[in-house]
Amino acid sequence: MSISSHHSAERAPHIGTLPAGALGTIADVEGVSVGHCTLAEGALQTGVTVIRPHRGDPFVDKVPAAASVINGFGKSVGLVQLDELGTLETPIALTNTFGVAALAQAQIRAAIRANPRIGREWSTVNPLVFECNDGYLNDIQALAVTEQHFNEAFDAASSDVASGAVGAGRGMSCFDLKGGIGTASRVVSAAGRDYIVGALVLANFGRLPMLTIDGTPLGRVLAERAAAANASSDKPEQGSIIMIVATDAPLDGRQLKRLSLRAAAGLARTGSVYGHGSGDIALAFSTAYTVPHGADFVALPPLVADHCLDPLFRACADSVEQAIVDALWSAESVTGRDGHRRLSLRDSVPDLAQLLRNSAR
């Protein structure tokens, strides 16, 4: 079942002072596209999200990438080779914890269809799948995610990026509210040129009293209200967040590793302490150049010097923080397995915008 983009008529507050790109999503980075396949029927509240780094074949034309594991309570596939070689050679797939194996196989099959020499004359392919546990709302034991859902999300990829309770975000919870997919972008000047940094998150972490939006400790206020009476500040933080950061700035794998780590700054600003049971992983990739498969030499453009990276670091933190807020702001309330229900932020707090304005004074 497909779910369209859900955006509130009143936009979320803009985080920081850096301007957003034209779309305000990760697709502001030229060539990047996102597709969702959403399963939303009864106890099945889950899905798949696919991020394509460019319009071509990422196995033939790989992109430089790197990841940072902020807290490793996660079941991802593909991080070891990514860390070793510093390139991304499949689309990035997001889903629930028990869907990882199915999507890894789907990525392998898709790569072989496009390049029949994989695993024979050529090397094997490194699938890349990230996950969060949506088992509160979704019957995760049903193992509902299949290869077909990956293919549908891949085929749906476009620059029109839906956020909220869509795709892999359908069953996710965030700060005891409805979480899901969020996205944002920032435009920044580094080394005398303008670049885009975009982020997409799969947000499934946090306890309500910890929630902070643009510096406002909103969660503490909400926890005092009757609607949040069942939230307890002594419960451990658990869940996960996957943070995907894209940029058109020319960076190598080492620099992208540094950029990915700054996603943690944006995550922390929202109130996360990277709890024991949370899988917090960030990946950054650049679209400024590709690494041709099998090439003996790789031509690199002039790279941004390390001493000029600070504006990109700032843009990464701001865009990740904004993307988390977008996930909360855009989500709809969802009822799933065994009648479990997560209210959206906006359904929980009808006077949200006014509350934020008052708290900021």
UniProtKB/TrEMBL annotation:
<keyword id="KW-0645">Protease</keyword>
<keyword id="KW-0378">Hydrolase</keyword>
<keyword id="KW-0031">Aminopeptidase</keyword>
<dbReference type="Pfam" id="PF03576">
    <property type="entry name" value="Peptidase_S58"/>
</dbReference>
<dbReference type="InterPro" id="IPR005321">
    <property type="entry name" value="Peptidase_S58_DmpA"/>
</dbReference>
<dbReference type="InterPro" id="IPR016117">
    <property type="entry name" value="ArgJ-like_dom_sf"/>
</dbReference>
<comment type="similarity">
    <text>Belongs to the peptidase S58 family.</text>
</comment>
<protein>
    <submittedName>
        <fullName>D-aminopeptidase</fullName>
        <ecNumber>3.4.11.19</ecNumber>
    </submittedName>
</protein>
<dbReference type="GO" id="GO:0004177">
    <property type="term" value="F:aminopeptidase activity"/>
</dbReference>
